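README: folding subset

This subset contains proteins for which both the sequence and a predicted structure token string are available. Records are stored as plain text. Below is the entry for REDY-like protein HapK (134 residues), shown exactly as it appears on disk.
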Amino acid sequence: MQQNSPCLEPLRSGGAPPEPVPAARRNGEKRVQKVYALYKLKPGVTAEEYVEWSKTVDQEITRRQPCVRSFRVFQLAGSRGGPSPWDVVEDIEVESWDAWQECLTTPEMADVVAGFRKMVDRESAITVFGSEIA
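--- output ---
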């Protein structure tokens, strides 16, 4: 399922995504939801500047959020046949899409959201989410 909103922006009313695949249970445990966020950096933002912010702000704060099970950030080097249309992909495991959207509005995430707005070309950002087929 795809959601064409910037990955660190909560959805606004009227922009609700389709219902996510229910988090089924495996061995009595609730399955998590995967969120992938892909985006380009704004013109003038260097890779070094972004990496420093990612390590010291984004990753530090996001990993501490109760709804986040894991959070990994990758710099993209290219794609099959040429350059990548994005600079970064985030691999986020959360308890649910709704919990992630709520998390983005908390005071604890304010510095992350502000940094994202400063560094990321929001028009290039795409977020997809779903559950494992098992």
